[in-house]
Amino acid sequence: MRALTVQGLTAGPPLRCTLTVSLPPPTPVTCYRHPSRATGRACTRCGRPACTDCLTPAAIGSQCAECIRESRPSTRESMRRWGASRPSLMTKVFIGISVAVALIGVARGDNLFNTGAGVMQREYGLHAILIDAGGEWWRIFSSGFVHFGLIHLAMNMLVIYQVSLMLEPALGPVRYTLTYLSCLVGGSAGALLLTDDPRSLTAGASGVAFGLVGCAVAGMVIRKIPIMRTNLGGLLIINLVLTFAIPGISIGGHIGGLVAGFLCGLVLMRPHHGPPPVWDMLVPFLLGLAGVALSFWAAGQWPSRL
Q1: Is residue 161 part of a domain?
Q2: How far apart are CA 306 and CA 249, in angstroms?
Q3: Residue 131: which domain range?
Q4: How far apart are the first and last CA of the chain?
Q5: pTM higher than the cut 0.85
Q6: In which element (H, E) is residue 79 found?
Q7: Distance of CA 103 to the CA centre of its chain
Q8: What average pLDDT score do residues 285-296 get?
Q9: For residue 181, how many other CB atoms are within 10 A of its CB?
Q10: Residue 128: which CATH number?
Q11: Local confidence band at 123 (pLDDT 50, 70, 90 cut-offs)
């Protein structure tokens, strides 16, 4: 009920009359998801009225369920942010596996300071005859996590960690993992191809170390950065010299890992605008499959080498 006062505009005394008008009661504001619930709040993003149960505190105000869902990044973007917040996570995982394998070997009786073949090397090292005739295919992968003593382990892990500080943030966790495994398998294939004695045991992540250096070098070549003016160029030259100068080092393992890593880098390290394309992950994956196939073929040639 409202009262309206109207004053007449006559020459005589003013006339005053009151007019009473009946207006409908105001419609209560209700939640857009629960029409039976009255509310005085609204989403700060879309402005729709919502009850307390339907609003979630946000950076500014509160947002409804639909706005919260729309503001979430895609799965691909979430993975990218997750990797960016952990720039060397996968490197630490791989280093942790190698250290754990060494400690398991010590628990089983291996001497950590002995450079000879122990329990872990005999059971998980690369061996052409056991891969082919024994069907122990896992040696193609496991050999990259087994080392001959503490110095061998420390040198490989140091190189891998130093290169990964630049490489893993640039590639992201998924591409870096695929590249790591591709270099590992490439090193196994190279070692089996160029071995002089199929009865010999080969182990170590040096193929991975060379491969990651090769991947980084490929990125510099693409960007026309003088490699020899960087620490990476000197590291590569020194390790190549040691590979051919010191007896007992698997030349094929180092070269195989280097080639696999360089090929991965030619694709994965290309400059691009926005997120990298998904298809480029097929390159290290296919190179890994090719390395496995080549390893089986090379292991199958052992009768002709005895």
Answers
A1: yes
A2: 20
A3: 85-305
A4: 110
A5: no
A6: helix 75-85
A7: 26
A8: 96
A9: 21
A10: 1.20.1540.10
A11: very high
In angstroms, the CA 109 to CA 1 distance is: 96
Read off the tokens for 239. Answer: 């390790």
Name 74's Cβ contacts closer than 8 Å, sequence gap at least 6.
none
Structural domains counted in the chain: 1
- With respect to residue 233, please indicate whether it lies within any of the assigned structural domains: yes
Asked whether residue 74 is assigned to any structural domain, the reply reads no
- 179 CB-near residues (< 8 Å, 6+ apart): 167, 171, 211, 212, 215, 261, 264, 265, 268, 284
Q: What tens digit of pLDDT does each residue of 70-122 get? A: 877 765 555 555 545 556 889 999 999 999 999 999 998 888 877 778 889 99
167 neighbors 220 (Cβ within 8 angstroms): no
Q: At what angle do helices 89-107 and 173-194 cross, to 10 degrees?
A: 50
Contact assessment for residue 195 and residue 241, using Cβ atoms and an 8 Å cutoff: no
CA distance 130 to 137: 8
Tell me, what's the pLDDT at 1?
Answer: 47
Tokens at 279, concatenated = 């298809």
- 19-23, 111-115, 125-129: the lowest-pLDDT one: 19-23
The dihedral built from the CA positions of residue 30, 34, 37 and 42, taken in this order, carries a sign that is: negative
Domain assignment present for residue 177? The answer is: yes
